[in-house]
């Protein structure tokens, strides 16, 4: 979908939600993503531990030997 369509659809959704906050407004997933509805999860400590497996020994990482 093009950016102009997404922006126009987002304005309509915003207007509907503002007019009646209790109303559930169905939104196309592409429009919702354009509006920032989906958040990417941040790294957690487990993800960082997994990086050790990929990068190797932390003592020798980053060119330090």
Structure description:
The chain has 65 residues and is an all-alpha fold. It has one domain. The protein is 52% helix and 0% strand. It has helices spanning 3-19, 29-34, 45-55. The longest helix is centred in the N-terminal third of the chain and has 17 residues, at 3-19.
Helix/strand structural class: mainly alpha
Domain module count: 1
Shape: elongated
Query: What is the string of SSEs from the N terminus onward?
Result: HHH
Oligomerization: single chain
In short:
With 65 residues, the chain is mainly α. Helix content is 52%, strand content 0%.
Q: Which helices and strands, and how do they pair?
A:
Blueprint (H helix, E strand, L loop, with lengths): L2 H17 L9 H6 L10 H11 L10
Features:
mainly alpha; 3 helices; single chain
């Amino acid at each position: 979908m093009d950016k102009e369509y997404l922006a126009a659809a987002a304005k309509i959704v915003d207007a509907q939600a503002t007019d009646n906050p209790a109303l559930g407004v169905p939104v196309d997933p592409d429009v919702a993503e354009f509006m920032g509805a989906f958040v990417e999860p941040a790294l957690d400590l487990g993800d960082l531990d997994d990086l050790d497996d990929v990068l190797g020994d932390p003592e020798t990482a980053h060119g330090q030997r």
